[in-house]
Prior knowledge:
InterPro entries: Efm4/METTL10, Methyltranfer_dom, SAM-dependent_MTases_sf. It catalyses: L-lysyl-[protein] + 3 S-adenosyl-L-methionine = N(6),N(6),N(6)-trimethyl-L-lysyl-[protein] + 3 S-adenosyl-L-homocysteine + 3 H(+). Its EC number is 2.1.1.-. One of its GO terms (biological process) is methylation. This protein is of the alpha/beta class. The chain has one domain (9-234): Rossmann fold. The protein is 39% helix and 25% strand. It has helices at residues 8-17, 34-51, 61-73, 91-98, 111-124, 154-159, 165-179, 195-201, and strands at 21-22, 25-26, 82-85, 104-108, 129-133, 146-152, 180-190, 206-212, 216-219, 222-225, 228-234. It has a 7-stranded mixed β-sheet with strand order 5-4-3-6-7-11-8. It has a two-stranded antiparallel ribbon with strand order 1-2. Residues 1-16 have low confidence and may be disordered. It binds S-adenosylmethionine. S-adenosylmethionine is lined by residues 37, 57-58, 86-88, 107-110, 113, 135-137, 152-154, 157-158.
Amino acid sequence: MSAGADGGGVVAAARSRRASPVEGGFVPSALGTREHWDAVYEKELQMFQEYGDTGEIWFGKESINRLIRWIQKHKIPLDASVLDIGTGNGVFLVELAKLGFCNITGIDYSPSAIQLSRSIIEKEGLPNIKLKVEDFLNLSTKLSGFHICIDKGTFDAISLNPDSAAEKRKQYVKSLSGVLKVKGFFLITSCNWTKEELLDEFCEGFELFEELPTPTFSFGGRSGNSVTSLVLQKT
Ligand SMILES: C[S@@+](CC[C@H](N)C(=O)[O-])C[C@H]1O[C@@H](n2cnc3c(N)ncnc32)[C@H](O)[C@@H]1O
């Protein structure tokens, strides 16, 4: 699978990924498990080794461009520390490194995702990207003081965990508070949560800084956004 723009295909795929809500969360799904992501990235690693395909960019290339436009608009310095939570194939970090960002870190709990990111980064010949296998809900190392944290689809995945997802969402907010500097920014892109729901999830210790425009769709006389993209600031 390769990435597309934030147009029809990817948006349709994102929309179809929208999980079914139940009270206080979503119907649990395999997408919330490490086994699922290990299998996904093992396959993608094999595709990369065989064909050089970097694999899926969650929400499409436009979702990366949207974040980069925000980073550039706000003149975030090139030495700002950035953490990509659940980096997957690490392609967001690759784009940041190409722009000259030199203090960037990607974590993922799937060793095959980190192996894939490492292979892509090596092929691109980009130094200065730190990668680590880490469960964001149970961090083994002291990660802290980041200026910016990015989440593209990871909070969505965690929300689908079959085993006490509500607790895991709470732990996510705690971990985020621990790694982000005061006044630091958290850029989240989600296909399962609306703006209001995300503000509610992150109401303790975070406030809305900006909502980033995302594509809209119309269906049956109603229109909406398939993806929510917010910038929150740690208070
Ligand atoms: C939907 S994918 C998004 C990948 C990447 N951010 C992107 O935009 O292409 C979700 C990612 O979150 C990772 N993930 C899920 N739960 C995690 C956790 N507790 N700690 C670290 N990574 C996690 C998965 O392994 C997967 O790489």
